[in-house]
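Hi W.,

Here's what went into the run:
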Amino acid sequence: MPLPHGQAAALLAEVPAWKLTTDGQRIRRDWRVRDFLTGLDFFRRVGELAEAEGHHPDLHLVGYRQVTIEIWTHAAGGLTENDFILAAKIDQLPLELKA
Amino acid sequence: MPLPHGQAAALLAEVPAWKLTTDGQRIRRDWRVRDFLTGLDFFRRVGELAEAEGHHPDLHLVGYRQVTIEIWTHAAGGLTENDFILAAKIDQLPLELKA
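Here's what came out:
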């Protein structure tokens, strides 16, 4: 079951760089990274984390340096606490942004 | 300048796994890969190729194993011959699909 809206909002406040998608079913963060390979290297770290957590986000690298990650729990059809845990751990990964 | 439509169509016929996007400005291919890390490993190879070609596609890994790549030439606002060359080279990279 997905989290009730109020509970999701409370958890979202703890990862303020992430936004709820318009359908309310996912959280999303965008980064403007140094370059394409920086984005791919970030994906590699996210992949290691995702494997360790057993939870896999959606990854997008567009326009050379625009990285977007979306997280949701497919089996719940929406957001669960695990999504916010993964978001908080992604926030701790090193990443070089565009100067 | 982007390629005239007829010329783009002729080049597209040489990379038949790729489809024109509905706006006609990009080519796109989808793969259902073995798992998340297989997708990321593919991205790494695509990244090496992109650096060698000096041409960088858009990469998407969604739903654990759904990979999508889109190619276009931003500076031309549409498709150029380089896009089809990159597509053909991506087609040659090894990739393990979902059984």
